[in-house]
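Progress report, Aim 2. The chain analyzed during this reporting quarter is listed below.
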Amino acid sequence: MEIEKKYLVDQVPDNLEQYDKWDLEQCYLCEHPAIRIRRKNNEYILTYKNRPKDSGDGDNPLCLAQEMEASLTKEAYEHLKGKADGVCITKTRYRIPFRKHMIELDLFHGDYDGFYLAEVEFSSIEDGRNFIPPNWFGKDVSGDIRYSNSYMALHGDK
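Predicted structure tokens for the chain:
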């Protein structure tokens, strides 16, 4: 089970070059459940992601999801990409350590150029509910479907 929170980003941290990063492209074949293909640098992945529910009290939501991944060849990725719906999301992802957590900061390109979103995964629901974000995080959008990559790819709304 994946347990995460998502935040808009008010200010991108300085010195991003010191962190690990990946160039990502992800395209969606289905929304519910989310079936996507992803290129992560030169790695190709098929992902099944089912969000059975969002959990939280309204003021402190968490995103919960079951997720499975399988490797693809470049040829299979390109074949499936031609069948994708909506737009393919492109972004650079930075992995930034923060206390005992890892922040995944996405800087979007293409249709969403200039949009920034941060995600943090947790080991438990309690860990997620107790998380205090860094001061460069903006609004918590964990319970807002409009900020899921599948929604953005298929509905073009941010």
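DSSP finds three helices and ten strands in the chain. The two ends are 26 Å apart (CA to CA). These observations will guide the mutagenesis work planned for the next reporting period.
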